Amino acid sequence: QVQLVESGGGLVQAGGSLRLSCAASGRTISSYVLGWFRQAPGKEREIVASVAWGGVTYYTDSVKGRFTISRDNAKNTVYLQMNSLKPEDTAVYYCAADQNGGKPDYWGQGTQVTVSS
Hints:
The protein is mostly beta strands. The protein has strands at residues 3-7, 10-13, 18-25, 33-39, 46-51, 57-59, 67-72, 77-82, 91-98, 106-107, 111-116. It has no helices and eleven strands. The termini are far apart.
């Protein structure tokens, strides 16, 4: 089993920055695909970004150029640096770990990000 714990969420003004962290325990995640998802009120959960074990990254169009996902395998941690935040980025952000290249196998509990205009 893998436990994922997010931190770093909060309230920020539009144009500001936040850095989310997700620490894993229970098992090393160096070979997992790691991702960040978000869910805004009344909307479905969507993928924001992911990073494969080799470092290949994916970003949804709405965050390209503003968000950066990274991983530190030595610390068993994945990060999401969010710059130039917009009110539409407001959501609960979840980290996830995928062992087999399909749907995530493990989820964190989520951290709230609120961007005020």
